[in-house]
Amino acid sequence: MTQKLVIIGAGMASGRVIEHLVEQAPEAYDITLFNAESRGNYNRIMLSPVLSGDKTYEEIVTHSTDWYAQNAVTCRFGEHVTAIDRDRKVVRGENGEVAYDKLIIATGSAPFIIPVAGKDLPGVVTYRDLDDTNAMIKASAEGGKAVVIGGGLLGLEAAAGLKERGMDVTVLHLMGHLMERQLDPAAGYLLRKDLEARGIEVKTQASTKAILGQTKAEAVLLESGEILDADLVVMAVGIRPETRLATDAALDVARGVEVNAQMLTSDPDIYAVGECVEFDGHLFGLVAPLYDQAKIVAKGLMDAPDVFQVKELATKLKVTGCDLFSAGDFAEAEGREDIIFRDPARGIYKRLVIEDDRLVGAVMYGDTTDGNWFFGLIKDGTDIEEMRETLIFGPAYQGGASVDPLSAVAALPLDAEICGCNGICKGTITDAISGGATDLAAIKTQTKASASCGTCTGLVEQLLQASLGDAYATPVAQPVCGCTELSHEDLRRLIKSQELKSQPAVWQELGWSTPNGCPTCRPAVNFYLLADWPLEYQDDPQSRFVNERKHANIQKDGTYSVVPRMWGGITNPLELRAIADAADKYNVPTVKVTGGQRIDLLGVKGEDLPAIWADLNSAGLVSGHAYSKGLRTVKTCVGTDHCRFGTQDSTGLGIKLEQILWGSWTPHKVKLGVSGCPRNCAEATCKDLGIICVDSGFQVSVAGAAGMEVKETERLVDVETEQEAIDITMAFVQLYRENAKYLDRAFKWVAKVGLDWVRERVVDDLDERRRLIDAFELSQSIYRKDPWAEHAQNSKTRAQYAPIANLNLEAAE
Amino acid sequence: MNWIDIGAVADIPLRGARIAKTPVGCIALFRTGLDEVFAASDSCPHKGGPLSEGIVHGQKVTCPLHNWVFDLNTGEAQGADDGKIDTYPICIKEGRILIDADSIRNRSAA
Ligand code: SRM
Ligand SMILES: Cc1cc2nc3c(=O)[nH]c(=O)nc-3n(C[C@H](O)[C@H](O)[C@H](O)COP(=O)(O)OP(=O)(O)OC[C@H]3O[C@@H](n4cnc5c(N)ncnc54)[C@H](O)[C@@H]3O)c2cc1C
Ligand code: SF4
Ligand code: FES
User: Given A28, A496, A758, B8, which is the most exposed site by the fewest CB atoms within 10 A?
Assistant: First the structure.
């Protein structure tokens, strides 16, 4: 006897159920199909090609009106089901009731709307169905700016589509990298790069605070305070299962409608299928498992019950030119091993995660041809021990190719600058090599590359090797650490010439062998990036040693020392009183006068740091950076103000220099001294840069040291005016910032490049001196700020100094 | 298990750490580059360095005082150094971090 089957929701899951039924048991059920949308089943995943204009709606319809008619499905499209009455076994639609013997809930899911002010303004859309897609197409016809909130699969497809239709698109993503559920940071970086290359702006770690506008959306306000103009705002931050009907009907509902392995809800006459269900704690957001579910539902309805099983899933992004693939579980864990392959030249990244000789996860970008092969290995749990060595090269490559260690250099474009001193590009050098130059000396004479400071020698040698192969054996330079084969010098040059402006860019383009570096390379890379790209790169506190992250020196018992700046060693009663008060208030056990002409408060608790800083700030005191690889102190003597021998205002010059240089980050610490006469009471001749004032002007000398090594400074130049002394100092510090290896004090760096090389740039070449000064000032426009004030005043950073929780009470109960 | 909420994942800086005060001393909560969270004792077995102030790399942390490295899964010191930090079960639900209060209590009773 024909039974009455009612289906709520004409989506991709229920569509598949109907197909099975009409094929295998056409007489068994009399089907009524409700759909809130005013149309039947279409291929929802192809909405993105419709948005971008590659397809029309007609092309993605799965079941046409004719198809429903032929199969005698009663369609009630454009009609919401408002309730299920389980006692009477009827479903209530907006236009009347229908009785059922069997019922299927297939209501899919609803876009998640973040609860911010302005979320209901016209111009704010979600991305779920054809109506949303049409709304976006209409809005894009007027051009303008679109902000897409959410950098997952849906958000990025929306962004690419809107860009294709001529809008200015910005994607906001809360997490550190795009598609973080499917991709690791390295693949996320490549994806971002591809999107940016097509003109889409991407902001990560961007949290939306409100959508602004009077009668329609006009802008998006971020937590950071930044405001982005927006004519259209797309919210694509996630989905939640559409469970309202089931909840009202008192079926078991957790996050989704709970079903057993036969896809039955807690009522034996009601099935649920698709994104609205929860099975064994799992939710579903891709079609592959839904099709499996549909088969199980159809079998149940045909009295041949079967069992649904959760399988591994693979993801791809439907944006042309962004080839990514991800499958399985790619988190790092104990007992898991990574195999990483990077080909910077072709923008390829592949990572396989192996556990117990089985492949458990795979992430790949740029070349995804082997994706399905890997996916098969994951699903089948194939033992890969035999293929381990060559696995990453895919099925075709089981012969064993080796990774090219020179690929970073090979990847450089011909116009990439190799020798910064003489402005020599890669092309010039490779031309010389093809013209017969076979060693470093020949390259030096023919092109001048590496003939000056010599820091590009490693790169030139790698070019020789890349071009001549085994005919040229590169002397091995000391690599930065175990994560790379590059030396510090090569790393610095490549960051400049390849314009690498983020950490993931460095890891990928330079072929790092670890996911995100180690404690040795990360602080170095962080410094190089902020020194070379002050505007584009954002300093990363998590890549710094504790002292520079907490802006205080850690002590052996875990407390901190606090050293406020005393400009040029000058202080006054107000400052001294503030320091004394702070010492009292925060129970500072030791107050010491340092060797750098200022006062150290030792033994401050980490939690008290923001408060003690705020107190010191209110007396005008700022951080002394006693903890930084940056400017420490400028030691001065009393000079002409008081001393009978003083020739120039050494105290005044010292204060000026300290005020110009403070806050700047340098490869290692920088200390200055200014003495008023050759008696040299400020010990200027054992500093990184020292100035001795004399009747005729100022003697500037550099490259001194008085720590583990003691070394007298070398005279750089004598100048007549104070301004010249200041200019020379700034240019010298900037040259050091641009060129030295991380953790080389100035004297070590000068010993490598030679004092003459420094003098040419800082003293002789006035244009270069000007450029250095301008570059320094540009960087200081960002970094010449008191980090104490910034940390003490920003409630978010301030909170970081306190414990996240205090469980002493709760756990003791 | 007796899960209690101790805060949001987002409250910990990416590749950083925060501490929670407990009867067994400070527990450090580490957030890795892949957004995993680990809980372990904050105190380095070498000379008591605060591990929450170390650099987090992969699933490891390096002590800020003398650079011992610990695997956050097992708590074992890496390389030539010999030592172990206590680790605590944790679970993450909708962006919140839950810690097992029993594991803390048992540790304090022991
Ligand atoms: C506080 C102070 C000692 C004092 O009580 O006077 C000091 C204290 C420290 N010095 Fe120093 N140095 C201090 C003046 C000096 C001086 C003298 C000077 O600046 O006139 C020198 C020799 C001059 C020089 O730098 O060439 C000096 C050479 C060093 C060195 C060796 C550097 C080198 O390149 O050889 C280190 C180790 C390092 O930086 O790697 C060091 C490192 C340290 C550290 C930061 C050790 C550390 O990493 O924890 C100490 C921090 C203690 C703390 O918790 O506060 N300190 N240190 C002085 C702070 C000056 C200031 O006001 O900022
Ligand atoms: C733009 C986009 C791109 C996607 N790309 C991919 C992809 O590349 N790969 C992939 O695997 N997946 C993709 N997905 C996800 C995939 O489309 C879904 O997993 C799938 O459509 C879910 O099927 P479903 O039948 O559960 O729900 P749906 O297809 O959403 O169908 C549910 C239907 O129920 C209706 N409904 C809800 N409540 C009621 C009610 N009370 N009364 C009547 N009708 C109701 C809704 O209007 C809707 O039409 C994409 C999704 C979108 C939106
Ligand atoms: S001399 Fe040594 S012990 Fe003394 S403050 Fe400097 S670094 Fe510390
Ligand atoms: S205290 Fe941790 S390494 Fe010494």
Answer: B8
What's the rounded Cα separation, in Å, for the pair A583 and A112? 51
Over residues A302-338, the pLDDT tens digits come to 999 999 998 888 887 878 778 888 888 877 777 788 8
What number does the ligand 2 atom closest to the CA of A79 have? Answer: 43
Neighbours of A295 (CB within 10 A): 17
> Min CA distance, A476 vs chain B (Å)?
25
Q: How do residues B46-99 score in pLDDT, each as one tens digit?
A: 989 999 999 999 899 999 988 899 999 999 998 878 899 999 999 998 889 999
CB of A463 within 8 A of CB of A493? no
Q: What is the pTM of this model?
A: 0.68
For residue A474, the model assigns a pLDDT of 63
Q: Torsions phi, psi of B109, nearest 5? A: -75, -35
CA torsion through residues B67, B32, A281, A84, sign:
positive
B45 Cβ closer than 6 Å to some ligand 4 atom? no
Residues of B in contact with A541 (CB under 8 A): 13, 16
B57 Cβ closer than 6 Å to some ligand 4 atom:
no
Cβ–Cβ < 8 Å for B34, B20:
no
| Residue A502 structure tokens | 């983020």
Cross-chain Cβ contact B21/A543 below 8 Å: no
Can you give the residue ranges of every domain in chain B?
3-105
Q: Which residues have a Cβ under 8 Å from the Cβ of A269 and sit 6 or more positions away?
A: A89, A100, A101, A102, A103
**pLDDT < 70 stretches in chain A:** 396-408, 454-455, 473-477, 809-813
Does the domain formed by B3-105 have CATH 3.40.50.1370?
A: no
* Dihedral angle, C-alpha A91, A93, A95, A101, nearest 10 °: -20
Q: What is the ipTM of this complex?
A: 0.69
